[in-house]
Structure formats: C-alpha cells, structure tokens
Amino acid sequence: EVGHQKFPCRHVAKSPVIVLGKNQLVGDMLCLGGAVLFAIVTVLQELAVKKTDVVEFLGLLGLFGSIVSGLQMVILEKQELLTDSWKQYINILTTFSISQFVFCILSCIFLQNMGTTALHLSLLSGNFYTLVTGTVLLNYKCHALYFLSYLLTMIGVYIYVIKPTPFAAQYLPSDSQRTRNISSRYKNRR
C-alpha cells in the first residue's frame, strides 16, 4: 500500500477501519513524479500538435506507442501472456483501448485550440464528476467546499480560455491558410 489517502470505499466494505499506506512518502513521490511527467508530455504534445499536422502526430504516437507498449508487454508480462487467464479481461482491455483512442484524439484537438493549461484545469474537474456520481449512486457525503473548489476550477478554465495564448495566436494558421495547406497536401498525393 502506497499513498497518503485513506481507504476511499470503506463504507462499501462496511469497515470502520481507516487503512493507511506503509510507504506514504514513496506513494507521494510517485504521484508527484507522475504529475510532473504528465505535464511535460502534454506541453510537448501541444508543441507538436501546433507545429505539425495532427494526423501525422497521432500516427507517429500510435506507431511508437505500439512499439514501446509491445516491448513492455513482452518483457514484463511474458508469463501472463502464455496463460489463458488474461482472456477473460478482453472486454475491459477493449474498452480501455477505445477510451485511450478517443482521449488521444480529443486531447489533440483540445490542445490545438486551447492549450496545455486549459487541458490540465479541465482534467481537474474529473474528480468532481466522480464525486457527484458517488453522491448520487453510492450516497457519499461530501463537504460543501468540494462544490466551491469545482466552481473555482471552472472559473479558472473560463478566465484562461477567454483569450488565446500568445503561442496559439502566433502559430495557428488562419482558416484560409489551413484550407490551402490541406488542399495542397492532397494535390501532392496524386
């Protein structure tokens, strides 16, 4: 058990015991490291999406992502692949793959139009939607400050996206230039 969070579903398990991890510092550092790496990746993704073609970026992401994921799977999961036990999870894997596919496409469109900061602010609102679902379906009890934090996050997103970033305004082509680039690309293929 790593991490600093209390057991979130203790009411489901009907357990009054609060479970804390033994290596909380390790969990916190892993969480912070993952957040920093995700921020670096999305900034570089924004740069790539705004400077190159989205289709080219997604194609290269899929190609190299497949190679890296395949190598990781062969190295780390070799024994599990040889057994038949993983076949029961094929629906879950398919759903995850479709979700990742949609997320990659939508995040590229979002990054091209809004930017990395707006994406990160929008992703912060995901916890609120989880809380609302838990409140409605599982009768969670939550503090009113959660709603205040959601409101402040949405105000931050709105303030940020009112005006495009200087990078976006400088490097994004106008609609006529984008149409000209697309039509010239198809003429070159013929």
Automatic annotation (TrEMBL):
Annotated transmembrane regions: 25-45, 57-76, 88-111, 118-138, 144-162
Coiled coil: none
Record InterPro entries: SLC35_F1/F2/F6, SLC35F_Transporter
One GO CC term on file: membrane
GO molecular function, one term: transmembrane transporter activity
Keywords on record: Membrane, Transmembrane, Transmembrane helix, Transport
Superkingdom, natural source: Eukaryota
Membrane topology: Multi-pass membrane protein
Cellular localization per UniProt: Membrane
Its job: Putative solute transporter.
Family: Belongs to the SLC35F solute transporter family.
Protein name: Uncharacterized protein
Organism this protein belongs to: Photinus pyralis (Common eastern firefly)
